[in-house]
Amino acid sequence: MAQVGVPLREYTTLRLGGPASRFVAASDAASLVAAVRDCDDAGEPMLLLGGGSNLVVGDDGFDGTVVQVASRGYAVDAGGLLTVEAGEDWDDVVARTVADGYGGLECLSGIPGLVGATPVQNVGAYGVEIADLLDGVDLLDRQSGAVRPVGRDGLGLGYRTSVLKNTDAAVVLRVRLRLCAGGRSMPVRYAELARLLGVEPGSRLPAATVREAVLALRRGKGMVLDAGDHDTWSAGSFFTNPVLPEAALPGVLRAVAARLGAGVPVPRYPAGDGATKLSAAWLIEHAGFGRGHPGPGGRVALSHKHTLALTNRGSASTADLLALAREVAAGVRAAFGVELHPEPVLVNCAL
Ligand SMILES: Cc1cc2nc3c(=O)[nH]c(=O)nc-3n(C[C@H](O)[C@H](O)[C@H](O)COP(=O)(O)OP(=O)(O)OC[C@H]3O[C@@H](n4cnc5c(N)ncnc54)[C@H](O)[C@@H]3O)c2cc1C
């Protein structure tokens, strides 16, 4: 049954967004396919909604049909291949694999949202991304209306992106992931996590131990949802870490030296083809935006636990959030000449 005028702020982790003209919940893959095909056949705008944890919806809402993914199902075969429906809660799935004695997903513990969205931006944390475990997905191709399996290599997975992100080209119906038998984690690559666990980078530990450590680190950064903590009323990291082509790096390093003094080390990581990835959080902090930096009327602010999360302090509008995002992006551009790009999907609004 479709509902009308549903406030989308009730379905996003930012608690922002105006009403949807129509709202349909799809409780299995067949009704998900039918709901999307109905919209596409009628030429109606459609927004697919998972857990709303990577969505910034405009204050005017969405003039079309919102299809909420609510399909359920989880099965692991004898070879450790997990098949899971798009509407399952991601962290519940991670917890269940660990409890069932499988490793692989533990570094991705605590990421909000649903399974179907995980390949969309190739979710990642603590040195692991979904591309490392993904076998493939079943997709509804919205152009042809056909349902077909697509292997990992057909998804164009990259740093917080895929062929699915910002395209509305297809719907992920289910995801297949290769788990590690024997309850061992993936190699712990992330230095901060290895330090907390007291192991050398590259070590493998019981998946449950790594999961607990990841959750502890994430909680300290406000990156585990908690309704009572406004620092978690966010879309996670608001900006991706900028990746600079080789030719652009010297100019940025000169701008850093001019502003902060020669010899100040800039965190940077090789990103292939001579490119360098910088830390968006570091750039924001050193451009003068500290934790808790407020936006308009104090209704939005940078998280008090992490400069990369833009948060709703309780009574914000999407316009407030975007004003803060613009202020931060302009400050980083002016200080270092680096352009920041938003990580969440912006619906009916723009930076
Ligand atoms: C506190 C917090 C911490 C976070 N930490 C991380 C992190 O560590 N790493 C990380 O990568 N991300 C992180 N995120 C971002 C977010 O949780 C992930 O991107 C998550 O996968 C989004 O899932 P969702 O179901 O909420 O998607 P939604 O926000 O509902 O949707 C996001 C986009 O995916 C599309 N979509 C949703 N479901 C499907 C589907 N089945 N098929 C096709 N398209 C679909 C939507 O239309 C939309 O365009 C964090 C967010 C928050 C709030």
Name the descriptors:
18 strands; 351 residues; alpha+beta; binds flavin-adenine dinucleotide; globular
Structural class label: alpha+beta
Number of strands: 18
Helix content: 10-25%
Rough shape? Answer: globular
| Beginning-to-end CA distance, first to last residue | 34 Å
Q: What strand line-up does the widest sheet have?
A: 6-7-12-10-11
Rounded mean pLDDT score: 96
Q: Identify low-pLDDT runs.
A: none
Give the SSE string: EEHEEEEEHEEEEEHHEHEEHEEHE
Q: What can be said about the biggest beta sheet?
A: 5 strands, antiparallel
Strand content: 15-25%
Rg is 20 Å
Ions, cofactors and other bound molecules = flavin-adenine dinucleotide
Give a quick summary of the entry.
With 351 residues, this protein is of the alpha+beta class. It has helices at residues 29-42, 90-99, 191-197, 207-220, 249-260, 280-286, 318-336, and strands spanning 3-7, 19-26, 46-49, 55-57, 62-69, 74-76, 81-85, 124-125, 128-129, 134-141, 147-151, 170-178, 243-244, 268-270, 276-278, 300-302, 310-312, 345-347. The strands form 6 sheets. The protein has a 5-stranded antiparallel sheet. It has a 4-stranded mixed sheet with strand order 1-2-5-3. The protein has a 3-stranded antiparallel sheet with strand order 13-15-14.
Description:
This protein has helices at residues 29-42, 90-99, 191-197, 207-220, 249-260, 280-286, 318-336; strands spanning 3-7, 19-26, 46-49, 55-57, 62-69, 74-76, 81-85, 124-125, 128-129, 134-141, 147-151, 170-178, 243-244, 268-270, 276-278, 300-302, 310-312, 345-347. It has 351 residues and is an alpha+beta fold. The longest helix is centred in the C-terminal third of the chain and has 19 residues, at 318-336. It binds flavin-adenine dinucleotide. Flavin-adenine dinucleotide binds at residues 13, 47-55, 69, 86, 111-114, 116-118, 120-121, 123-125, 164, 171-172, 223, 225, 232, 234-236, 345.
